[in-house]
Specification:
The chain has 288 residues and is mainly alpha-helical. Helix content is 79%, strand content 1%. The protein has one domain. Strand 1 and strand 2 form a beta hairpin. Helix 3 crosses helix 11 and helix 8 runs antiparallel to helix 14.
């Protein structure tokens, strides 16, 4: 729960960093990598090079997807409210449901299709009342949020293809790969922007890299190992609820009732998708 509370407050720090989204993503990966590798060194954990070579293809895909996920999510925060970005970002379980038949050869059941349609209905409610206004361009921001959700789904599905690696070692490798992939891209486009950093931006970057990446991921994996998967799925909803509360209380962003209704539909669809999927898998396992 603590890790989800930390993830839910990420927008406060991202909005206080005077850098482009790709630069923020790079520094997040670099700082998070340093923290997690330091954690592995303290624990005296080593990752066999044979496992890295064995999973190289999916590690590279996961690292690329994580880097894109960060860039797109931070862009969403710039173009729309935190509430809209978070709710569109929570479309990730729906993307996984749609991709699973092609990646894992899983069947797309009527119940899962109903969850997809429910989530789409919620998204239509949000987009329908989110025209461009002031410094925001909500449709573009929501589009970035949906794209970020897609790449997050790709990262998770890539990790499911990785064998004999999990927890902190897998996360540390993924962050390093994401940072390495982002390095030439940032260097050739915007540069690293070190000269633009102010005291406030440096503090927010440190919080983003160490607390919201390193510490939060360590806590999340520790919690995931201690509770059942359905309990973990339920607790993950602390993240969007916290983000929406932060948006209203600290960033003073308005959330209209119809947008709130759309958000409830998306979160309900994601929750039901988790519950239905786990229940169906359990039944299938029992039948075998």
């Amino acid at each position: 729960m603590l890790s989800m509370l930390i993830f839910g407050t990420i927008s406060i720090f991202v909005k206080n960093i005077d850098l482009a989204s790709n630069q923020v993503a790079f520094f997040r990966g670099a700082l998070g990598s340093l923290f997690l590798w330091g954690t592995l060194l303290m624990r005296k954990e080593r990752i066999p090079s044979a496992l890295i070579r064995k999973n190289a293809k999916f590690l590279l895909l996961s690292g690329f997807a994580v880097g894109m996920n960060w860039i797109l999510l931070f862009e969403a925060f710039r173009y729309t409210t935190v509430s809209n970005a978070t709710l569109s970002y929570y479309f990730q379980p729906i993307f996984m449901t749609l991709l699973a038949p092609f990646v894992f050869k899983e069947s797309l059941t009527a119940k899962k299709i109903a969850c997809v349609l429910l989530a789409m209905m919620g998204m239509f409610l949000i987009i329908g009342v989110s025209p461009a206004e002031g410094s925001y361009n909500h449709p573009i921001g929501i589009g970035f949020g949906l794209a970020a959700a897609f790449f997050y789904a790709v990262a998770i599905m890539s990790n499911k293809k990785i064998t004999c690696l999990a927890g902190t070692p897998l996360t540390a490798l993924t962050l390093v790969i994401a940072t390495v992939i982002l390095t030439p891209y940032v260097a050739l486009t915007s540069g690293f922007g070190l000269g633009q950093l102010t005291g406030g931006s440096i503090g927010s970057l440190l919080a983003l890299g160490i607390v919201h990446t390193g510490i939060a991921y360590v806590l999340m994996f520790a919690g995931a190992q201690a509770v059942e998967s359905q309990t973990f799925a339920v607790l993950s909803y602390v993240d969007p609820v916290t983000a929406i509360a932060v948006s209203a209380l600290f960033l003073k962003e308005e959330l209209l009732p119809i947008q709130l209704a759309g958000g409830v539909l998306i979160l309900a669809a994601a929750f039901l998708n988790e519950f239905v999927g786990n229940k169906e898998n359990q039944i299938a396992t029992n039948e075998e």
